[in-house]
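ok posting inputs for the cobalamin job
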Amino acid sequence: MKVKMILPALVEARGLSFRPIKYSLFPPLGLATLAAYLPPGTQVELQDEHVEKLRLGDEPDLVVIQVYVSSARRAYEIADHYRAKGAHVCLGGVHVTTCPGEAAPHADTIFLGPGEETWPAFLEDYQRGEPKPLYWSGKRDLSCLPLPRRDLIRKERYLVPNSLVVSRGCPHHCSFCYKDSFFGGGRPYYTLQVDRALREIAGLPGRHLYFLDDHLFGNPRFVEALFDGMRGMSRLWQGAGTVQTILTQPRLLEKAAACGLKSLFVGFETLNAESLASVSKTHNLGRDYNEAIRRLHGLGVMINAGFVFGMDGDEPDVFDATVDWAVEQGLETATFHILTPYPGTALRASLEKEGRILTNDWDLYDTRHAVFQPRRMSPVQLESGYWRAYERFYSWDNILKAALTKPDLASGLRHLAYSGAWKKMEPLWNLIIKTGALGLMRPALEGVLNGMKWVSTGKEFKPLPGIPGPAAEAM
Ligand code: B12
Ligand code: SF4
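and the output
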């Protein structure tokens, strides 16, 4: 059996605002996970259109396509192409789960929800010659999860090939998030077994890891055991957590830093309490954001702050106010989004009820476009404010100002290097990607994360004076 697995590129990939480095960060982990269930002897190829040109002249028996909202159009194009050639086409992923009626005409089989249960069930049916048109994941269990087929990933095309997930979903229920629509009708949050997670980590080469879990700290018992197991593995890692965890789980945070946490994505979303309440982000309400930042910085952990613009409490001054605060706080990087009512979310249901959805063109659902009518500004103000926020936050003036908030030279330099490299070296990144030398940049990334220290001697490594940081054994 010949199987072709495809992550189609989003429309932006062919546009002027495309940033190749953003799409050369992580490999298609979901597809690599599904590939691990294929029977021995299967001929399988995995292609990610963000980093390579698709070869569409082949004749696979089975085609597996992962569909995100902003790549749906392209995914359907590819699906139609292979169906016309007689392949059995399977579509799955977040967008298929939330818009099954739209996806079904382009597929022989669609999959709703995570694939760990439905995909092996389909494979059995397919091999018996009785594949069904739809599979829905009700049981959610990762106890038999095989290791992803990383051998199918072209590692040289990614800056961070060591991405992994040790849980699925999230215990919270923010109204704009994909989570409730994707995991609806079953367990909304569950984890791997600690031993299995540690086995996967131990098998990853190099030092750097990136946990793509929505909320790595969602199950404190699980994650504490994971961090204990990671101590002494000499890892440097990044991941995502909530303000609530940072403020209420100090021990967990210290353990995270002790086993190599270097930078955390934190969903601050907004400084405006009315806005937080309007999207049911209740676990952020009333929290002292400044204190959360002090704690992370105190442990030597850099922050990638997530902000969303366009919520109901937002006025036109929200962009400048957010950026000014982020710079004052010395946040290293920030990711701004325009609030986007993805299909299947509670946010979309309420905006639809109020007649505020402006377009259903999924190409524009990329968090860069205003696809709904904001309450206290115009869509044009929302889009231009979003771009201004990026421009201002990543101006050299503000990068420097934020770096100067750091208590010592080394962490100031780390801030400059990390922030500058991410947004100010675009042409250089493009060149590096074109020449296929992305892998060579990994030691540089590790060095910057590690406080501008490029050469480490494993357990003997001592933190530079003045850098508060993890225990030496974990560096
Ligand atoms: C890493 C990531 C990225 C990375 C790269 C993704 C990649 N190379 O795969 C980058 C940074 C490039 C990125 C970009 C964007 N992302 Co993104 N991203 C993620 C993130 C955090 C993790 C994805 C992941 O690896 N999950 C782990 C693996 C194991 O799970 P999985 O990929 O979902 O695969 C499982 C199932 O979906 C299913 N499955 C998937 N496909 C198929 C196919 C078949 C046949 C079957 C049976 C099953 C199946 O089985 C897999 C195993 O269970 C998710 C959030 C999340 N937790 O999913 C958001 C998420 C996917 N991103 C999202 C969005 C909106 C975007 C952007 C549009 C936004 C932006 N401005 O950045 C862009 C564009 C994406 C695009 N290409 O169209 C949304 C998608 C919403 C939607 N309704 O589609 C998500 C859900 C987050 C959110 N904001 O709500 N993203
Ligand atoms: S905390 Fe994050 S992942 Fe969890 S529901 Fe809210 S937005 Fe989604």
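notes: The two ends are 45 Å apart (CA to CA). The chain has a mean pLDDT of 92.
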